[in-house]
C-alpha cells in the first residue's frame, strides 16, 4: 500500500480538484415503516409510514461521493420538470453541489427508485424512468454546457446506467473533447454501450460487465479478459473490480489488489465509490496504481456499513490505519 505520508498528500490535494460527472442522475426514495395488518381492500400489507428519506442515486451518487471527499464537482445530466426533479435538486443543494449543468426536460420524468421497507425488508420497489435516448436538442445542450467548462476541470467521469443520457453521440463527443484537452476521462460502463467508450482513459467494469463488453458469456481468465478489453477499447488502463476478490489494474503490467473489508454489510454503491476515488486520486497526481489502492480502501469502508455509499477522507485514513499500522 502507499505510505501514509503519500496518502495524506494525495487526499489533501482532493480539494483543489474539479471533476465533471455526466450520466444518469437518479433519486433514491426510501419509505420506511412498519406492518401490523393486512389491508381489507386487497391481500397486501398496510405499511404505517414512519420516515421518508431521499438519497442521491446513480450518477448523482458519484457526484455525492466526490463532493464528500472535498472535490469540486460539475454535474451534467437530464432530470424531469417535476416535483421529483425539485427533490433531486434539493438534495444536491443540501450537499452544496453545483447543478448548473443539469437540464430539466419536459418530456421525461426524473428517475426515481422508491423502495418501501418495513422491518428491514423491502416490500416493493417503484421505478419512474424513461430509458429512451435523450433528444438531439438535449444532447447539444449537455455538450455545450460541458464545453463551456472544459478548461476549468481536471477530469471527467461518465456514469452510465443506460437511462438515455450517455447516447453514442454524447459519449463519443465527450471522449474526443477530453482527449483534445488532455483531460482524464473514466467510465463506469453499461456493457451494451461499450463501443461508445473507445479511447477513454480508463474504465471500471465489474467482472461480469467486462465479459459482456467483449461478448463473452463464460468465465474467462481475468488476465486475458482485462487485456482483451483494454486493447479492444484502446484504453490507457483498465480497472476491473472483482467484488470480494478486490480489483485488478491493467496497465503495462497487471496488478491485483485484494479486498480489505473485514465485515461486509452492504455492497450497494461500492462501484460508484471506486470510480470516484480512482479518478479523483489520479487527477490529484497519484499514479494509477496508487489511485486503485486508495479506491480499494475506500470501497472497503463503504461495504462495511449499511445504508450509506459515500466515504470521507477521514474514514479512508482511519481504515488505512487499521489495516496498515506497520506502514505509518
Ligand atoms: N463482498 C465484498 N467483500 C469485500 N469487498 C468488496 C465486496 N464487494 C465489493 N467489494 C469492494 O468493492 C469494490 C467494487 O465492487 P464490485 O466489484 O462488486 O463492483 P460493482 O459490481 O460495480 O458494484 P456496484 O453494485 O456498486 O455497481 C471491489 O473492488 C471491492 O473493493
Ligand atoms: Mg457497478
Automatic annotation (TrEMBL):
Gene3D superfamilies, sorted: 3.40.1190.20
NCBIfam families, sorted: rfaE_dom_I (TIGR02198)
Stated name of the protein: ADP-heptose synthase
Lineage: Bacteria, Fusobacteriati, Fusobacteriota, Fusobacteriia, Fusobacteriales
Coiled coil: none
One Pfam family it belongs to: PfkB
Sample GO molecular function, one term: heptose-1-phosphate adenylyltransferase activity
Keyword Metal-binding: no
